[in-house]
Each structure stands twice: as C-alpha cells, then as structure tokens.
Amino acid sequence: MPELPEVEGYRQYLEATCLHQPIEALDVEDTKLLTTDPITLAETLSGVSFTGTRRVGKNLFVFTDKPGVIVRMHFGMSGSLEYYHSSLDRPRHARIVFYFRGGFNLGFICPRKFERVGLVEDVDAFLKSKKIGKDALELTVEELAAALVNRKSVIKSTLLDQSVAAGVGNWIADELLFQARIHPEKPANELSTTEVEALREAIQQVLLTAIEKEARYAHFPESFLIHARAWDTSPYANSEQHLLCPRCGSELEIMRVGGRTTYFCPVCQQR
C-alpha cells in the first residue's frame, strides 16, 4: 500500500512533469473511483492548469489556477501516477487520464480500484472533516506528546490512527517503534518524555530515509527492521529461517496488534 514516502514521491513526480499545462480533457474508465460527479469534474477541470501540490499523510492535493478548485488524490492499496506522451499506449490500469493540451497525459494508475480522485475547495476544511491530523513529518515533540497523553490504546494502534500522525502505515509504525526501542503494546499515554522524544526522532529518521531511497526497501540502512519483514529475503534469518534483530541478533517476534501483523524485538523493545 502506498504510504507517506511513496505519496511524497508521487507529489514530486507530478510537480516535475505536469504543472502549467492546460487540461484538454479527462477520461474516466470507472466512475466509482471518483468522489466528485464525473460531469462536474470534467467541466470544472477543462482548461485548468495544475500549479502546485501539498501532501498531508497519504493524501495528495493538487492546486490549480482556478480559485477554489483543488484535486485530491488518494492512492488506495496500489495506486500510482504515470506521465506519458499521447503517441504512446495508455498505461495498464490507467483508469483515469488527464489529457494536457501540449500532447502529454497523466495516468492515474488504479490496479485494485481502491484509489480515489475528486475535488475539494479547502484542504484544511477537508482534513478536519475527515479527522486527518498533522502530517507525521511536521509533528513537533510537543505536538506528538499532546496527541498521545490521553490515549490509552497501545502505541502501535495509536500511531496508525491518522488523526494522530497522518501518513503512518503498518510497516512504518513497526519501524518507528523499533528505532525508538518501544514495545508495540505499551499504552500510548504511558510513554515517558524520553520515549516521546525518541519516537519523534525516529519519525524523522525513518520517513526521510524512505523518501530519500524512493521507498525502495532493499536500499534502506541495514539497521532497519524492514529487512526482516515477510516480503524480503531477509539477510537476518538464521539457518532455520528464524528472523533475527538487526541490532542485537535476538530472534524477532511476530504478533497481531490491533488486528495488524507486527514485527518487534523482545530484547530491544521490552514492555
């Protein structure tokens, strides 16, 4: 699933390719992917140009030169973007295509149809209505502490709440807690000042690293827990294929926390 680092990559990609080109037409293969009526969307965007972007968590907002017209993109389970010339074939799964007058197109790739595109008038009002909090990368120590102080739920589940730290997904939450040496089942409101500071430092470290590496997990530092997750051929597995902690070499544990698969080190992340 595209998480904050991937969506930041899409934001940078869109800004590098699609700004200041009037939209000639919009083609929507499946209107269920839209949060705005298709006719309204097409008429509103006709002749409009993208002028800039803002990402908040996993949401990408694309500003236009038409006041009060902002395109919101959410990449669902596997969405992405592809900018291509009209002389080329339409990309596979490009179920929404923005056609620019200059001969280039932007395909919104929707393999599993969980992705969404629509219009919003005001970004902050939209975020408030959807209870989406501050972007995880923008959180200060004080803001993070305030968000956790009254939360009795375990810290892993709390971090996945988009009203607390927008953009944090499952593997990111595991990585943050591993780097901060916090057990995933510790109640959020029981974190010490030192632990909150370590967690905020981990948020910066992990997310900025993931953005820099373009979310290519194999390129992450060897000290990252992500190398031990199931989708990788882990360099931290012993002869019996038990996953080992990249920090201390102890056997990792896998359990369900809040219904989500969770990796942690019982030695480095003690209760």
TrEMBL record:
Provenance organism: Salmonirosea aquatica
Catalyzed chemical reaction(s): Hydrolysis of DNA containing ring-opened 7-methylguanine residues, releasing 2,6-diamino-4-hydroxy-5-(N-methyl)formamidopyrimidine; 2'-deoxyribonucleotide-(2'-deoxyribose 5'-phosphate)-2'-deoxyribonucleotide-DNA = a 3'-end 2'-deoxyribonucleotide-(2,3-dehydro-2,3-deoxyribose 5'-phosphate)-DNA + a 5'-end 5'-phospho-2'-deoxyribonucleoside-DNA + H(+)
Family: Belongs to the FPG family.
Protein name, per record: DNA-formamidopyrimidine glycosylase
Keyword Heme: no
GO molecular function, one term: class I DNA-(apurinic or apyrimidinic site) endonuclease activity
Source organism phylogeny: Bacteria, Pseudomonadati, Bacteroidota, Cytophagia, Cytophagales
Domain Formamidopyrimidine-DNA glycosylase catalytic, residue spans: 2-115
Reported cofactor(s): Zn(2+)
A GO biological-process term: base-excision repair
Keyword Metal-binding appears in the UniProt entry: yes
Pfam entry (one): Fapy_DNA_glyco
Alphabetical UniProt keywords: DNA damage, DNA repair, DNA-binding, Glycosidase, Hydrolase, Lyase, Metal-binding, Multifunctional enzyme, Zinc, Zinc-finger
